[in-house]
Structure to design on (285 residues):
């Protein structure tokens, strides 16, 4: 019986590793083609500003709906593409889409930045170019980075400083789950903290989470940073966060990540008609 169990376990492990390797290879093989076919696209999740009670922007989230596999989890395929050293292409694709889509709306957009992009000087020139081409003011673009060791090495830090100098905003994503220390907060040129959903979801049920969120908001404000809460799924959580003076709310309660047309269709009429008037033609010079 012991042997059978051992064999079972071994077999299972073997299967899993093999599947993982195979999965990665096919994902990498198919990615470029999927981009070209439109199977890879960018969804937008609205951000609600609690001060003005208006949708002031969105987070861009990559999507891949595979003809056979269906929805592929973005964190999973993004990691595979990172591991293969091909993250630049993905990032620049999302950046161009987001800037092209949001410049005519006059709203803000946030793009997730893989840490593997930092410290290689691959961002500043294309970003400057994209903002100019589509006529987006730099302060309408936020780059979301997750807490990790690389972001505070000298090269990474210098690059973040140079992006900040262009006027682009830096946000610390999934705040509270990474290796954040107080010195990160002091050193990073960030203007926004995004409190991770794992804390937000428990704000009503866990006293310690409520205390952590409340004091994080106070701390961020003292440091002149604004605070976004992600993963807000109901009105009670929204109310609790508003009571703690959280600045911006993101989550299914406000809206799910959706294609651009659906995002725009839910905006107030004023913004939508302004977009139509301007048309989305880029200003190529
Ligand atoms: P993230 O940047 O922290 O994005 C937030 C995730 O939470 C998104 O998952 C979003 O769909 C989900 N979410 C938002 N509101 C709620 C809610 O109320 N409840 C629940 N349960 N979930 C909510 P998604 O789209 O699956 O993305 C997962 C992660 O993949 C992202 O986490 C980000 O780290 C990464 N990712 C997505 N798009 C990109 C991209 O273009 N580039 C890079 N480098 N990473 C990306
Ligand atoms: Mg994010
Ligand atoms: Mg996050
Ligand atoms: Mg996350």
């Amino acid at each position: 019986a012991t042997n059978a169990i051992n064999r079972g376990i071994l077999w299972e492990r073997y299967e899993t590793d093999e599947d993982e390797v195979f999965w990665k290879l096919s994902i990498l093989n198919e990615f470029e083609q999927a981009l070209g076919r439109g199977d890879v696209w960018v969804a937008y999740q609205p951000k609600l500003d609690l001060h003005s009670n208006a949708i002031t922007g969105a987070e861009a989230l990559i999507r891949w709906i595979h003809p056979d596999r269906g929805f592929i989890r973005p964190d999973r395929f993004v990691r595979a593409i990172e591991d293969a050293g091909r993250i630049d292409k993905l990032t620049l694709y999302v950046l161009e889409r987001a800037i092209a889509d949001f410049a005519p709306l006059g709203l803000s957009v946030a793009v997730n930045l893989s840490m593997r992009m930092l410290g290689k000087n691959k961002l500043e020139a294309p970003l400057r170019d994209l903002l100019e081409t589509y006529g987006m003011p730099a302060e309408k673009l936020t780059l979301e980075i997750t807490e990790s060791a690389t972001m505070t090495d000298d090269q990474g830090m210098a690059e973040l400083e140079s992006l900040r100098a262009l006027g682009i905003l830096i946000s610390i994503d999934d705040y509270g789950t990474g290796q954040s220390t107080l010195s990160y907060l002091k050193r990073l040129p960030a203007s926004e903290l995004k409190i991770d959903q794992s804390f937000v979801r428990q704000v009503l049920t866990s006293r310690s989470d409520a205390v952590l969120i409340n004091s994080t908001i106070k701390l961020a404000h003292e440091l002149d940073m604004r605070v976004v809460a992600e993963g807000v799924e109901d009105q009670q959580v929204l109310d609790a966060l508003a009571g703690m003076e959280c600045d911006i709310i993101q989550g299914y309660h406000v809206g799910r990540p959706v294609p651009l047309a659906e995002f725009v269709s839910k905006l107030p009429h004023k913004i939508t008609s302004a977009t139509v008037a301007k048309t989305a033609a880029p200003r190529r010079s």
About this structure: The two ends are 74 Å apart (CA to CA). Residues 45 and 257 are 4 Å apart (CA to CA).
